[in-house]
Amino acid sequence: MKRLWRLLGCLALAALAVNVTIEFASRKSLPAVAGYLFGSPLVFLVNTLLVLAPFLPVFFVRRKFFAAAVAAFLWIAAGVANGVLLMFRTTPFTATDFRLVKYAASLLTTYLTWPQISIGGAAAAAVLAICVAVWRKVPADPQPVNLTQSACVAAVGMAVIWGSLNLAMLSGLVAVRFGNIGQAYEAYGFPYCFANSLFNTGIARPDEYSREVVAEVEAEALKPEKLYSLESNKTPNVIMVQLESFFDPTLWLKNPVEKDPIPFFRYLVRDYPSGYLNVPSVGAGTANTEFECITGMNLDFFGPGEYPYKTVLQKRVCESMAYTMRGLGYRAHAIHNNEATFYDRHKVFAQLGFETFTPIEYMYRTEKNPTGWCRDEVLVDEVFKALDSSVGQDFIYAISVQGHGKYPSFEYYCEQIRDMDRFVKKLVYQLARRREPTVLVLYGDHLPGFEWSQEEMANRSLYQTQYVVWNNMGLPDVKIDLEAYQLTAHILNLLNIHEGTMPRFHQHYMKKSVMEKEEYLEAMELLEYDILYGGQEVYGGESPFEAAKMEMGTVPIIQKESACYAGRIVVYGENFNEYSVVCVDGKPVETVFVGQDCLTGDGGTWEEGKKITVQQIGRDKVPLGTARQMFEP
């Protein structure tokens, strides 16, 4: 038995060494690790105990050294992954990143050079080789496993770990929820924060949640006020454009660029309704700012680092700005000049009520910037295609991508947002010439991923971008700072629209004093839980919303004729692009884009009776839609 207790002591020392290694990988300097260790020794102890947990299975196997080595390697690998990610973004490594592996793989060459990728691959191979060598060379424990004694020692170890963790959370030594995930990892350590992100997902059921309490919130904050009525020639198109990594460089006190890269946006901010927008992420996390703006929901109530696009919205329809505007007679469109499958938008946008979605796979005449992202100018044509696709008014939500990292330099970043500023100017000028009542909301999703601190910002925040509301309706020039989840409520309020559950809720509380903020947040959490995880009592027990039958693109892709000549398939039609792929019985073949009216494909697999179709397929090989056939070939 003494031998097992000594083994537990050795494993605890190993866990301590692993914890130091993990924090060094994240903080990247020994003085920073020492400052954390001696500045927060109890937090460091809690993290060391958490690191110890995966070592406890060692007691139940004979190859104890191998099991301990695997546990150590897994922790260190996670710590190194965190350190690498922090080189390219401000958001640390969380469990949610496992859901984004396929996207990360597609972006490897954007953020890493081939030598760096090769070094990483070699390191992974070396670790695997070491594990194999340990398995083969290190002998197994000659003594058989005493399950009773091993279970006793492991149970004591787990009891200490579990008790210490719960005591730390109950005493406030570590936080359960993170308002700023980057600061949380700095304050509470990687092991605790990563474990929190692994097990703490979704919105926990509020203690006071019940049908009666929801009814009280509804009576207090969701009473209809002056409901909007559609009047001829006074109903505006509402267009929201989320600008990738867009912010005012002059807010950075160390800005090395003298020439203003965003003069037109600055003019808009001066002369139209505008303000700062508090967003939920920095350096990355586009989809989370998107989620808050579209739904009016606060991400602080979800698990740390969670992307609702990858969790709850995979299976649940959610009330949104799209549903609200459709209820007023609008047609709802989404546009994004990047792959449709990124963050699963090709699935999620239907859950949010969008009737059409135009990703890059359905766009034409796209151009790429030097780092491979599509330039935003293409969005101008796509916005007008959406406007022209319906008879009535439209709600359009467009997401830009040109400002995406990685950036070779800050000067390069400024060149990209200068381009984006020109895109905004072109869009505004063309909308002004259209002479339809229009509201255009422009805002940045988050700050770019540079290494800077909030002390270096003129506004003392890394979580603030700017928004502006261009319009040709003479809306009052209101200057107000907002949370991202309040943005659509504010826009609707400017238009005297008081529809939608979350917009009405925010409009009610935004008129009240800041002293009622706690009440506001508690009621907001209750509503969000009810809508996404609870009994949907706010709707009477059943959601009135159904997933939209979303169409891809606003311009139909049409297949007219097809035939096979000399081993080549030739397809004629309309509106083909570089993502149009010839398929034989549903299987893609090598395709050449000849023009918008013609494709050719490898006819080696074609035989009489096999069906020829055209599908839109992106880089990840996911079919997004099939061209309409005017008649069978």
Write the layout of secondary structure elements.
Layout: H1 2-27, H2 30-39, H3 41-52, H4 64-85, H5 101-106, H6 108-111, H7 114-137, H8 147-171, H9 181-188, H10 190-199, H11 211-221, E1 237-243, H12 263-271, E2 274-278, H13 286-295, H14 321-327, E3 331-336, H15 345-351, E4 356-358, H16 378-388, E5 394-399, H17 410-434, E6 438-444, E7 464-471, E8 482-483, H18 487-494, H19 501-510, H20 517-532, E9 551-552, E10 558-565, E11 568-574, E12 580-584, E13 587-588, E14 591-595, E15 598-602, E16 612-617, E17 623-626, E18 628-629
Parallel strand pairs: 1-5, 1-6, 2-8, 3-4, 3-5, 4-9, 10-18
Antiparallel strand pairs: 2-7, 6-7, 10-11, 11-15, 12-13, 12-16, 14-15, 16-17
Helix pairs in contact: 1-3, 1-4, 3-8, 3-10, 4-7, 9-10, 18-19
Give an overview in words:
It is built from 20 helices and 18 strands. It is of the alpha/beta class. It folds into 3 domains: 2-199, no CATH class; 211-551, 3-Layer(aba) Sandwich (Alkaline Phosphatase, subunit A); 556-629, Immunoglobulins (Immunoglobulin-like, Sandwich). It has a 9-stranded mixed beta sheet, with helices on both faces. It is globular.
In short:
The chain has 633 residues and is an alpha/beta fold. It has 20 helices and 18 strands.
CATH topology of the largest domain: Alkaline Phosphatase, subunit A
In angstroms, what separates the terminal alpha carbons? Answer: 79 Å
How is the biggest beta sheet arranged? 9 strands, mixed
Averaged pLDDT:
89
Rg result: 28 Å
Question: Which strand order does the major sheet show?
Answer: 8-2-7-6-1-5-3-4-9
CATH top level class name of the largest domain: Alpha Beta
Anisotropy-based shape: globular
Number of helices: 20
Residue share in helix: 40-55%
CATH evolutionary superfamily of the largest domain:
Alkaline Phosphatase, subunit A
| Strand residue content | 5-15%
